[in-house]
Amino acid sequence: MNEIGHYLLRSGHTKDAIRIFQMNVAAYPASADVLDALGEAYEKDGDTARAISNYQKAHQLDSKQKHAADALKRLKN
User: Fold this and answer.
1) Degrees to nearest 5, angle at CA 32 with 76 and 46
2) Under a CB-based contact definition with an 8 Å cutoff, are residues 69 and 52 in contact?
3) Which of 37, 47, 59, 70 has CB atoms 3.0–4.6 Å from 42's, for a disulfide?
4) CB neighbourhood size of 12 (10 A)
5) pLDDT tens readout for residues 15-67
6) Helix, strand or coil for residue 34?
7) All domains of the chain, ordered by start, with CATH?
């Protein structure tokens, strides 16, 4: 599902990507990669608060999740 979501995100279908990533998070709530992807979609959609929340959850699950850590630094500045 992550691949489909990323395809939609790259294609400019941000809202559809968010829905796919939300379903993926519901199915795999302990996956840092899935939460990171949802954070990325929210960020692209301009929803900084939700992006930060999902990036934080991803980073808490996997402190080596570089994309989430970098995004948190960027968004919090």
Assistant:
1) 40
2) no
3) 47
4) 9
5) 999 999 999 999 999 999 999 999 999 999 999 999 999 999 999 999 998 99
6) helix
7) 2-76 (1.25.40.10)
Contact 42, 26 (CB under 8 A): no
Q: Which of 45, 65, 29 is nearest to 73 (CA)?
A: 65
Q: No. of H helices and E strands in the chain? A: 5, 0
Q: Is the pLDDT of residue 6 over 90?
A: yes
Closest by CA to 74, choosing from 59, 61, 17, 19, is 59
Residue carrying structure tokens 């999902």: 54
Q: Measuring CA to CA, which residue among 72, 51, 68, 49 is closest to residue 59?
A: 68
